[in-house]
Amino acid sequence: MKPEALLHSRPEGLYCPPGNFFIDPVRPVERALITHAHADHARAGHAAVLATRETLDIMRLRYGGDFTKSKQVAELGERIDLGGVAVSFYPAGHVLGSAQIAVEAKGLRIVASGDYKRHPDATCAPFEPVTCDVFITEATFGLPVFVHPDPESEARRLAESLRQFPERAHIVGAYSLGKAQRLISLMRSVGHDAPILIHGALAKISRYYQGRGIKLGKLEPATVEGIAGTRGAGQIIVAPPSVLGDRWTRRFADPLSVFASGWMRIRQRARQRGVELPLILSDHGDWNELTRTIRETGASEVWVTHGREEAIVRWCAINGIAARPLHLVGYEDEAE
Questions:
Q1: Cα–Cα distance between 185 and 158 in angstroms, integer?
Q2: Is the model's pTM score more than 0.70?
């Protein structure tokens, strides 16, 4: 069987004709397999959804109980038959519940990685390399310039800023699913035990993380009644990136703008957003993680999607691996 006969791109997303299902479709379909619950990969409106328990739970929190007509839990490592195609889910290390999806038929195995990272993260299961014939990799940070620093070193930079500026509220922009909880967990790992204030948009998902045994320490609502401009001095306030520079921040004491993102490697992006303390913290693999992972899968062919596709394709060619871009649309990396 040729790989394209088992899995190929369509306007709705990656499609498996023998199994009649899509992976992370961007339009409503009859059967969707979802790698993780970020909104650009997990959309409401599919007739049937197969995903990990955490991904299904988070989709329910975000979209309501009727986000699909039928849902099925995929246990990690379990083989599920869909029309003669064996599918199985493996940890992707991206966010809680994130998974790679292996699709197998007639001796051919393709692994769709979704989004993934290899750096340590106490808030989700670590990435597990899966041997395959074809590996579909993301390339959000698929350029050699992107080499992420040690996550705890970035957390210590934030802790040091709190010590230097105890009169200022440190408002950290972090994506509400995954990045925010990871940032909080990292601060606990470097000894920051004080309550952390969180924006209301983070509350449901953070409670869910805690309910799944993820230790985030004491969290308090950022918004309470009080005198504007006095709250949060010497404290961390975690909020969606969209609030940085917004009127919402004015209720806090001399707010100091912090942004946690792999894009903070690019100083111009930090300046454009008015970020005073850029933290290079990513939930996507950097150049070294991407190339290491491709090698570890043993894949003879690599398909590259949503990101800096050309550089990864070129690296594969130099290393004797067939590769091509998929040019999938509908997946975002700005919030990261």
A1: 13
A2: yes
User: How many CB atoms within 10 Å of residue 231?
Assistant: 18
Helix, coil or strand: residue 262: helix
Listed as own residue / partner, the contacts of 37-42 with beta carbons closer than 8 Å and 24 or more positions apart are: 37/62, 37/95, 37/97, 37/98, 37/177, 38/95, 38/115, 38/177, 38/178, 40/330, 40/331, 40/332, 41/114, 41/115, 41/331
Sign of CA dihedral 137, 141, 144, 148: negative
Question: Distance (Å, rounded) from C-alpha 23 to C-alpha 244?
Answer: 33
Please, which residues bridge with residue 238 across strands?
A: 172, 198
Task: Provide the pLDDT for residue 331.
Answer: 61
Q: How confident is the model at residue 306 (pLDDT cuts 50, 70, 90)?
A: confident
- Tokens 């930079």 — which residue? 157
Structural contact between residues 126 and 91, judged by C-beta atoms closer than 8 angstroms: yes
Long-range contacts from 81-85, C-beta under 8 angstroms, 24+ separation? 82/16, 82/19, 82/20, 82/21, 82/31, 83/18, 83/19, 83/20, 84/18, 84/19, 85/6, 85/16, 85/18, 85/19
Per-residue DSSP letters for 74-86?
A: --BT--EEETTEE
Task: Please tell me whether residue 204 adopts helix, strand or coil conformation.
Answer: helix
**Amino acid, single-letter form, for residue 333:** D
Could you tell me which of 329, 295, 280, 335 has the C-alpha nearest to residue 309? 329
Task: Determine contact, residues 139/290, Cβ cutoff 8 Å.
Answer: yes
Rounded to whole angstroms, how far apart are CA atoms 201 and 317?
Answer: 44
Per-residue pLDDT of 170-180, as tens digits, reads 999 999 999 99
pLDDT tops 90 at residue 292: yes
* Tens digit of each residue's pLDDT (9 = 90 or more) over 33-51: 999 999 999 999 999 999 9
pLDDT value, residue 330: 57
Q: Residue 199: count other Cβ atoms within 10 Å of its Cβ.
A: 23
E-strand stretches of 201-319: 219-221, 236-239, 256-260, 277-279, 301-307
